[in-house]
Task: structure prediction
Amino acid sequence: MAEQSIGAARMGAAETTRKKGMPPGPKGLPFVGVGLALRRDPLGMLRSVAEEYGDIASIPVPMGTRVLLNNPEYIEQMLVVQQAKFHKSTLTKQVTERMLGQGLLTSEGDFWRRQRRLAQPAFHRQRINEYGTPMVAIAQTHMGEWHDGETRELSHDMMALTLDIAVRTLFGATLPGEAARVGRAMTFLMRHQLARFRSPLRLPESWPTPRNRRATRETEFLDSLVYRIINERKQKNGTAGGAHHGDLLSMLMASMDEDGTQMTAKQLRDETMTLFLAGHETTAQTLSWTWYLLSQNAAAESRLHEELRDVLAGRAPDVQDLGKLPYLNAMVTEALRLYPPAYLLARTSVADCTIGGYTIPKGTTVLTSTWLMHRDARYFDAPNEFRPERWLNGLADRLPAGVYLPFGDGPRRCIGQGFALLESALVIGTVAQKFRFRLVPGHAVVPEPLVTLRPKFGIRMTLEART
Result:
């Protein structure tokens, strides 16, 4: 990608003059707009629109128009200043609701606020820090199965590792031998639901096509795991007033709202499924992309190992060590910049609003791409290069709000941000002391924008044990 500010045609962010109609954008084809191009190359299409049309642009798609925001002030209008005028987008709900139901990711209004309030105590800093020791122990256990010189599909390994961590720390359970199938089920369902959403001809999910039947099987499999976790926790906790374990699931079962009500069985299922999937998927992608970036940047890898050696001297890291590992933390921040798992943030307006001088009608889907903003040369030198050191001189404090958004912003900022950052740093600090990873020659690493940003063909690495 060209390292230039996106779009010579950008309009000034301070411009507030009301304009007629929707923002400018590509015309596309009759009926389908640019839907076919978006389906072929979503990231490339979004970038070309931003380059040509600037800070705010219309994108015609089948049966509607999207509005793309590429300016931090406009993004903050959507996520923070006028957030009450936006709900999670139809796109997000159609792609994820079958799996997640009305969990924190998709619910709205008073119901969402209630669920967030009930879940929040499990993500307080003190509680999250208690997860540090098991995170390290689980990483060490998984490394015990790795051998010097072998080739592994590292993105699969990271999915298995983070699934194990999420299930043990958040739910106090285990899923022995299920990680591979969970990964396959999630990958299929993401691709299936996105293909349905992007298709101009959308067959009903109830029709018994081969793909619909498989989608039903995979959903039932994930449901069975979640209900197993819930039932096992209920048995361990006993009747009301029995033992209360410190994991998230126990806290959700025991938590009571201000009106004295608790979560229903369906609400508990939806929140557990949301945290079960979201609690490991995004971190797995962060770890996978980090190992890939390190394998391509010898200087960064060497500097990380020097810091780990000087601070840890061969022992496993703990939570207290992270404040003494600035380069490790900067590396995680930089990996999230280049490969944000949530590469696209989408909202649907529930009332007319004005952004960038344009009136955005009620019912319009508004997008911003963290993939684009994180690679914008207006805010980042050499934006396509992996440079963790860029974060060591206070860059995060100098960036305008709305530029760096790996966890979103505003009231809907990811509740698990602290958990994900802690897990990423501890796993990297544990694994990097024992192994280097070298990309298999000729293996193509291609970002695939599904619900999260995944490596389309995986990341095949040869392991080198560090001595």
Remarks:
- The CA atoms of residues 299 and 387 lie 10 Å apart.
- The domain at 90-347+368-465 is CATH 1.10.630.10 (Cytochrome p450).
- The chain has a mean pLDDT of 88.
